[in-house]
Amino acid sequence: MDHAAVIESMCLTWRHDFGVDRVTSEQIVGAGMTDEERDFLRREMGQLFEHHIAPAVRQAVEAEREACLAIVESHGKDHAKVRLIAGDIRARNDASDNRAG
């Protein structure tokens, strides 16, 4: 996932005139943005991304990884990469359990 590209996309979704330069000094929404306004919006969208999107993506990736591992292990596959992933997931789970307890 390209962090900067996602944030630029979020900015364009929020303000469709994000890529358009403001041609008037009047504060009219939809009439373009100054560089300062774009920088502000990037920072705001970056915070939204870091606080809401990134954790959800990490959680989804981890859940998919665990599901795939369970499928592979249930079929009796004994592959070095499977053992490595299994050990990594178990270590993460142990670390989470130690923090929770």
Describe the fold and architecture.
This protein is mainly α and 101 residues long. The protein has one domain (3-100). It contains three helices and no strands. The protein has helices at residues 3-14, 35-74, 80-100. α1 (3-14) crosses α2 and α2 (35-74) packs across α3 (80-100). It starts with a helix and ends with a helix. The model has no long low-confidence stretch (mean pLDDT 84).
Distance from first to last alpha carbon = 33 Å
Given the C-alpha coordinates, what overall shape results? elongated
The largest sheet is: none
Write down how many β-strands occur, each being a DSSP E stretch of 2 or more residues. Answer: 0
List the secondary-structure elements in sequence, H or E.
Answer: HHH
Radius of gyration from the alpha-carbon trace, in angstroms: 22 Å
The amount of helix comes to over 70%
How much strand?
under 5%
Counted up, domains total: 1
- Model regions low in confidence, pLDDT < 50 over at least 5 residues: none
Q: What integer is the average pLDDT?
A: 84
Structural class: mainly alpha
Count of DSSP H/I helices: 3
